[in-house]
Amino acid sequence: MNGAAWGAATETTDAAGPGATDVARVRPAARLRGTLRMPGDKSISHRALILATLAQGSSVIQGAGEGADVRSTAGIAAALGARVERSGEAGRTVDFRVSSPGAEGLANPRGTLDCGNSGTSLRLFSGVLAGQPFRAVLDGDASLRRRPVARIIDPLRAMGAELHAEGNDSHPPLTVVGRTPLRAIDVTPTVPSAQVKSAILLAGLRADGRTTVREAIATRDHTERMLRAHGVAVERTDLDGLAPGVAWSLVGGSRVQAVDERVPGDISAAAFWLVAGSIHPDAELTLRGVGLNPTRRAVIDLLRGMGADIKEVPLPPQGDGDASAGEPIGDLVVRSAALESIQIGAVDVAMAIDEIPALCLAATQARGTTVVRGGSELRKKESDRIAGIAAGLAAMGAAVDVQGDDLHITGGRPLQGAPTDSAGDHRLAMTFAIAGLVASGETLVWGASSAAVSYPGFFDDLEAVRE
Ligand code: S3P
Question: Is the pTM of this model over 0.85?
Answer without folding.
Answer: yes
